[in-house]
Each structure stands twice: as structure tokens, then as C-alpha cells.
Amino acid sequence: MALICNARSRAARLLPQALSALPVIGRPNAPKSQASLGNEPGRRLASARAGESVSPLSDECSNQVLDFPGGKLMFSPDMRFLSGSTGERVSCYRVLDDNGHRISDNSFQELSEKVAVKMYRDMITLQVMDTIFYEAQRQGRISFYLTSTGEEAINIASAAALSNEDVIFPQYREPGVLLWRGFTLQEFANQCFGNKSDYGKGRQMPIHYGSSKYNYFTVSSPIATQLPQAVGAAYSLKMDKKNACAVTYFGDGGTSEGDFHAALNFAAVMEAPVIFFCRNNGWAISTPTSEQFRSDGVVTRGQAYGIRSIRVDGNDALAVYSAVHMAREMAVFEARPILIEALTYRVGHHSTSDDSTKYRLVDEIEHWRSSRDPISRYRWWLERNGWWCDDAESELRSSVRKELLQAIQVAEREQKPALGELFSDVYDIIPSNLREQEQFLRHTVKKHPGDYPHNVPA
Amino acid sequence: MDSNPRVCVMGEDVGHYGGSYKVTKGLATKFGDLRVLDTPIAENSFTGMGIGAAMTGLRPVIEGMNMGFLLLAFNQISNNCGMLHYTSGGQFTIPVVIRGPGGVGRQLGAEHSQRLESYFQSIPGLQMVACSTPYNAKGLMKAAIRSENPVVLFEHVLLYNLKERIPDEEYVLCLEEAEMVRPGEHVTILTYSRMRYHVMQAAKTLVNKGYDPEVIDIRSLKPFDLHAIGNSIKKTHRVLIVEECMRTGGIGASLRSAIIDNFWDYLDAPIMCLSSQDVPTPYAGTLEEWTVVQPAQIVTAVEQLCK
């Protein structure tokens, strides 16, 4: 109970500050009198007419007021088209400059040393993990891999600002969130090798992690399908009045999908506690954002749906942490969706099936890899606080590397899933037709052992 | 919805409007507009929403205003609904019910006369049932909601007005079982949904002509109740399938294939299948009537089969 009260009062304190900083929010919505966790019967059933808009006009200009479904508004005799762009781009929230110095008089969510150091350790672990698994794919030991290089701050800092009860609907470039929650390097390796110990039982490509234990929903390859699912989960959490929200991640490319549009629209209408986290890393495989949309990035789209939105420097761990922390409080305690656009850069190739030097300049990639690296920037701030040093750095990197190589070896040697797993979990209980198909397959394998891999247990 | 607070309904106009065919009438007033949720028009997305809600512990009943609109939800239904239990290694279940009116109505035009069971039958992980009477509609709906698997429940646009005395108390029918409508000796007629009524009408004529048809409403479209179907074939040795699906790639096509695989030795004649032609359903009343299997055709087919 105390925790919730504190959080609310903190939200109440920081909220006006956060809101006033943004010119786009003029009048706050008519506040609900009760906390919005409940199932409010309300505006929708109560009104038999088409609903009123939320901000009523004053009565003074009543002779220039029009009344249509959606509410009253002013009319104008001048024909003026709204410009497609606002001229000035929405500004970007950051806490640290490129050298890790606090840009003074910014507010940000304070971190304890414990959390701050864990964030750094996990960012390094993610980076090393990406390097080694990528190499493993190049050596032919796993069939596929996809890195999060350059987006470590987004991965770890956002995860750190959430609670373990918040349900995550990832795209595929967010293994750091799972790492933060406790997924081990061995567990990552098992999934990539699709062995018997993989929680997915070898059914998905590498990097399609999933863990019900950590509330991280299994990655599904098609783009943006997870967005409406996250809204559904938020709806479920709201019905159960849980102190949790849904969080879904997606890239700049994903915002072109129909599911993005509908998910944001639904979430706004339903007042669902969901955070839409867009990793705008500039590239959707070979499509740059200039060919993906003509809006000012993704943040402006939130307003179109009536969703509170913010643009943050995705390579600034403290900014990401603060924004997600605040977003979560708003989502949970006000039952509303929030859109966060984190600007960043995809330093690696799209995946191991891609060579991005074919469509972008090597200089550009190198620039972001070195001088705009989110990890170094955060480390400088950490070191200045006296919370990190070179010895700790080399010790961490070598121990993670060692643990990873070990995990890969173990995962590689582990048996593959048994033949029966081809047919289980299609339904809750194996139906007779699948049982027949399984018998037939077993019979075939038995009869032609030379034609089938022998390291698969029966 | 009374007995389990996790059951909820989502779809277009299901709330205060009560649904385009009034299936959810009165529910929003009783359970509130969060449990009976009116969604914006985006089938792929509210189906996705239902999937996300199911993965988080709810039991959503997702309504397609017309089954044909669920073609827009094919991605979510195939790639996520059918697959996520499997690809997550059993960690997440998706106990959704996807339902709605389908089939050929009265001059609704091609886009509102789709037979989605043809398109969905191939999706692994899904279960499909078709109800045809008030009695089996209640029993199958309850069973579908209680099932841990995603179930697609096919209702028919022209069957909503049927009236029947059904038990007040709770009963649940088995999702995988077919229904024996009329036992007989001469020929097995397999059908489902609205065609059951055309078959029964033809049966009256057939009985007058001295035939004894066995009519089975297969109800379970995926998987087929091969036990009941097989028992019947072993008795009559002749099969006629009457369906509303198109000739190509419909339920009849799969059923024929399954019967040949399993009961070839028991057949005394080739399997006959009466289906709609491979054309979009026209609007004009006469044309529409010609595209749906009529009782007279069924009578002729049985006479031919039993020669």
C-alpha cells in the first residue's frame, strides 16, 4: 500500500513538470475522479448520443461554434490547410551529453549504485553476448543471429525501469530485457542451439526467446503483430486491476504496419495501460527512415491517436530509464497508453543474413559505433560517480566471455529435442490424427535410419 | 460469462448494439463495457488483442461481424493464434474462441458469403467446429470457451432464427464429436451447418422413395470425427458429402481425402461430394440459389449412389 501511495505522489509531483515541458499538451484531459484502475462504466454506455470531445469550449464564442459528432468546435471562414509538418522537429530528452556529463538542471530519475552498476554490467554482457553469438553463427555453429549493437542502453535501461510484473511483448532486438530479468547465458545459448533444454523446445529460430517465468512473450517473426497483443494484455491487466502494465517494443519499420495504427488507436480508446516503445534506429533492413515515413519520426504520431508521447535519446541510458519510469507510472496509475520514441542507431547489420555495407556508408556505421556508443557514454558517468573502474571492466568482459564460450559448448553438445516434441503443444492434448502422423514418422525413421540424423532422441 | 469472470467478448458493435446478429444482446448492460468490448474496425488487431489477452490469462470470445472479415485477421490467426503455444514450447496458451456468422445468406453478395472453414482448415494449432441447432450451439460454445486450445466456432447467417426447446441447466458438448441426426442403412450423408437442413429435407423425399439415408452432422471440422464417420461407412458402404464450401480446397475435399485414407476398403462406390461451384457468390437471388446445393440435387445424388 505504502509503495503505491509514494509512487502516486511522486508521479503527482513530477507529472506537471513533465507535462509543462512539452508545448503539445495544452489542457490536460478532464481528470477522472477515481483512480483509473477500475472497470468504470462510463462515458460510453451513459451517453446515447455520439460522444463529446474531452475539452469543452467556453460559451463566449457561441456564435462561432459548430456542433458535430465528436463535440463542439470553432469554425473559421479562412481556408487553411494544416501543414504536413510542424516546421520544428519535436525535441529529444537527454540527461547526459556525448561525454557522459550531466546536462545540468535536467530532472532525471535517480538510481541507486546497485541498480546503476547492474545496468552497466548487463549492457556489457549484452554486447559481449552479441559479439560471440554472431561469431558462432559465422562459424556455422548456429544458423542465424541478430544483434542489438548500439541499442544496449535501450534494452537495459528500459528493463531496469520496469517491474518484473510488467508483461513484455518484444519484436526481436530486445534480449537485454530478458537478460535484465535473470535469463542466463546458458538459457540464451540453449534457445539459439534449439536443444532439449530450450524452453521453446527447438521450435523457433535463434533469438526468438520466450519466458513465461519472466513475463517475456515469445518472439514471433512477423513485424508489429505484438502491438495489438500488448494492448490485449493491458486490457487484461486493467480488468484484473493489477499494478502492472504491458510494454511492447518495435522498430521504425514496424510503425508502417497496420497493426501499429490499430494498436495505438485501440489503446487510446480503451485507456489501456500499455507502453509503446519504438526503437527508431534509422534502418529497417535496407530502408532508411526517410523512405519509411514522412512524418517527424514516430513521436508525432502518438498525438494523432490522442496518446501522450515523448522522444528520448535512446543512447542515453539515464534518459531512457527516466522516461520509462515516468511512462510506467502514468500507464499504471492513470490507465493510459504512452508512446516513447527512442532515437538510436542500428550499429550492426539487420541480422546475419544481411550485409549493411551494401546500402549504407561504412563511415556512418563506424561513427555510431565509436563516438556515439551508449555504453562508453554511460560508463564515463558511472566512473565519475566512483562506481566503476578499469579493473572491474576487464574482469567483467573476460568473465562474461568465458561464461559464454562455456555456455555455447554445453549448448552445442546438448541433445536435440526428442521426436515426440514435433507433435506436442500443437494442441493441449495430442489428437489422434497427430498421433497417427507421429507413429508413421517413427516407423519411417526406424526403417531408414541412414536418412535421418542420429543425434535426435526418440 | 456469469460463472467465469475471465470470459470476455470483443468485436465490432458487440456492446450496446448487441452485435450485428444480436448474439451478444444484453451482455454489455449486464457485464459492463469492459467485459463486452466494442472495438474499432481493425480485425487483425482486435484478434491480436484477444490473443494477447488470452496469453495473459483471460478467455476472450472474439467476434467477427461476418466470418469473411476475419480474412483480415488471417495473419494473427495463423501466425500467432495457431502457433504461439507451440513456438513458446508450451509456455503460453491461447484459449480464445473466434466466432461469427458465415456461409451464404440471402443476397448478401460475395464478400459477405465466405466459407472461412476452407481457408482456416490448414492452420495447425486451431480447432474448428460448426454449430447448426440451438442445442448444439449452446453446448459447443461452452465447450469452446472452456477449451485450452484456440477454437473457431462457425455460425451460419441463416440459422440465427431457429427456435428450439433446450435445457436450462449447463451442458457441454464434445468439440471433436459428430452428431447422428438420422440413423439409416443405405447411405452415409455427411454434412454440417445449414446444409444439414437441406439434407434433412431431401431425406424426407428419399424416405418416401424407399431409401434409408444415415445423416451425420459432422460438427467438428478440424479434426474430423473419424470414429463416428468410420462406423457409419462400415455399415452403409456409400458416402455422400454435402457442403456449402467451394469444390476446390473445401471441407469436402479434405473429408474425401481422409475417408479414402482410412476407409477405402469399406467403400462400394466412389465418394460423392456436392459443393458450391468455384465462383464468388452472386447477388442475384436466382444465381445465388444455383450456387448452393439444393435438396433436389441431394435426392438425385443419393439415387445415383445407390444404383
From TrEMBL, chain A:
Subcellular compartments: Mitochondrion matrix
GO cellular component, one term: mitochondrial matrix
Entry keyword set: Metal-binding, Mitochondrion, Oxidoreductase, Potassium, Transit peptide
EC numbers on record: 1.2.4.4
GO biological process, one term: branched-chain amino acid catabolic process
Cofactor: thiamine diphosphate
Gene3D superfamilies, A to Z: 3.40.50.970
Catalytic activity entry: N(6)-[(R)-lipoyl]-L-lysyl-[protein] + 3-methyl-2-oxobutanoate + H(+) = N(6)-[(R)-S(8)-2-methylpropanoyldihydrolipoyl]-L-lysyl-[protein] + CO2
Main location: mitochondrion
Chain positions covered by the region annotation Disordered: 29-51
Molecular function, one GO term: metal ion binding
Enzyme class, spelled out: oxidoreductase
A Pfam family matched in the record: E1_dh
Top-level taxon of the source organism: Eukaryota
Residue ranges of every copy of the Dehydrogenase E1 component domain listed in the record: 121-417
UniProt cross-references to PANTHER family, sorted A to Z: 2-OXOISOVALERATE DEHYDROGENASE SUBUNIT ALPHA, MITOCHONDRIAL
Quaternary structure and partners: Heterotetramer of alpha and beta chains.
Family under the similarity heading: Belongs to the BCKDHA family.
Name of the protein: 3-methyl-2-oxobutanoate dehydrogenase (2-methylpropanoyl-transferring)
From TrEMBL, chain B:
Matches recorded under SUPFAM superfamilies: Thiamin diphosphate-binding fold (THDP-binding), TK C-terminal domain-like
Domain Transketolase-like pyrimidine-binding: 1-162
Catalytic reaction list: N(6)-[(R)-lipoyl]-L-lysyl-[protein] + pyruvate + H(+) = N(6)-[(R)-S(8)-acetyldihydrolipoyl]-L-lysyl-[protein] + CO2
Cofactor(s) needed for function: thiamine diphosphate
GO CC annotation: chloroplast
Cell compartment(s), UniProt: Plastid, Chloroplast
UniProt keyword annotations, A-Z: Chloroplast, Metal-binding, Oxidoreductase, Plastid, Potassium, Pyruvate, Thiamine pyrophosphate, Transit peptide
Assigned EC number: 1.2.4.1
Gene Ontology molecular function: any one: pyruvate dehydrogenase (acetyl-transferring) activity
Alphabetized Gene3D superfamilies for the sequence: 3.40.50.920, 3.40.50.970
Signal peptide location: none
UniProt key word Repeat: no
Enzyme superclass (EC): oxidoreductase
Keyword Cell membrane: no
Function: The pyruvate dehydrogenase complex catalyzes the overall conversion of pyruvate to acetyl-CoA and CO(2). It contains multiple copies of three enzymatic components: pyruvate dehydrogenase (E1), dihydrolipoamide acetyltransferase (E2) and lipoamide dehydrogenase (E3).
Complex formation: Tetramer of 2 alpha and 2 beta subunits.
Protein name: pyruvate dehydrogenase (acetyl-transferring)
